[in-house]
Here is the input.
Amino acid sequence: MTKKTIYLDHAATTAVDKKVLQEMMPYFSDKYGNASSLHYFGQEASQAVEKARIQVAKYFNANLNEIIFTSGATESNNLVIKGVVKAYYKKEKKKPHIITTAFEHHCVLNAVKNLEKENLVEATFINPKKDGVISVADIKNAIKSNTILISVMYVNNEIGTVQPIAEIGKIIQKNNPKIIFHTDATQAVNYFDCNVEKLGVDLLSMSAHKIYGPKGVGVLYIKKGLIIAKIQDGGAQEFGLRAGTINTSGIVGLGSAISMIKDQRTTNNEKIKKLRDYLIAKVLKEIPDSRLNGSKIKRSPNNVNVNFSRVEGESLLMMLSSEGIFASTGSACSSGSLSPSHVLLSLGLKPEETHGSLRLTLGKNTTKKEVDYAVKVIKRSVEKLRKVSGSVLKDYYKNMKHKA
Ligand SMILES: *Cc1c(COP(=O)(O)O)cnc(C)c1O
Here is the structure.
């Protein structure tokens, strides 16, 4: 890549912070012991892991034995959905009911859908309102006598909308304290209060690579006393819940990344939110027939998701990429396919209304200059694509007439 690049895809992943990398480095080639080994080398690694556990527990206001390290949010979410159901069947025979949302990340959505297909659970998928926010009443009304688990993401990864987790937590604690409440907080950790007590959650998932930590490492918070079954056999690592050699360097990086957020959250939030609002206003003003997907207010400080009518999102993305601007249409996983985004469909949009959507997610180092340049290129690209699609349509209609 020779040209200057502008990275506006921080919801897909972030760069490892230089300070985080520095703290990780010794654990690759020098302090490389297996944290489960009893000798000094092993204990050195184990101590580093336990230091990270303290950092993570502090961030979530949790106890040390409530923090499980995993390979990322995908694994944490799979462990939640499958582990809760498996633990349930050890005691009960009746089919349980799960409530989740229609716009969860695919690792939650497909885990639930597959259990449903296997006839192991009954499931309700709640659609958000038009603004991309789940209604507390909708969750409440979906509760049945056999509901065992409610899983609602904190911040949606595609449209950035913030869900009323604490309110849902309160309702559950008040009316149905036996129901287990989980939130996928992967996109929230950088920006929102993740105090598990305030949120009223029993389980919380997150991933390091969305918060300037390394890829392949994440956390599952499990409230004390809650029994979930392991879904992977092997060693007794992580309180017997997550077999597999401990990823020392990754965990050290996660701990370092999460401890940096607490220091910087307030100032970063203000700065990034201002830039986000500037970007939204500029795009909507300068590019005709554009609209914002999802609530403007209940929104992550770093997320912009705009729709341009008469534009194909994938074509726009490739055009921007060729100019060094990296963004996303829908989530990274779905952007490989041309099927409409399940998130945008869940808002009640028609498939043809979802196509020209562009997700721009800002990071802690994004500048106003970058935003200005990006809008200039986006505007030019949208105009170009509309001209092309316009002439394609004209040709199409000409042919139709010809045939008629
Ligand atoms: C990125 C992401 C995941 C997946 O996390 P990995 O650690 O990459 O497996 C899950 N949920 C949400 C909301 C995400 O943004």
User: Anything to note?
Assistant: DSSP finds 13 helices and twelve strands in the chain.
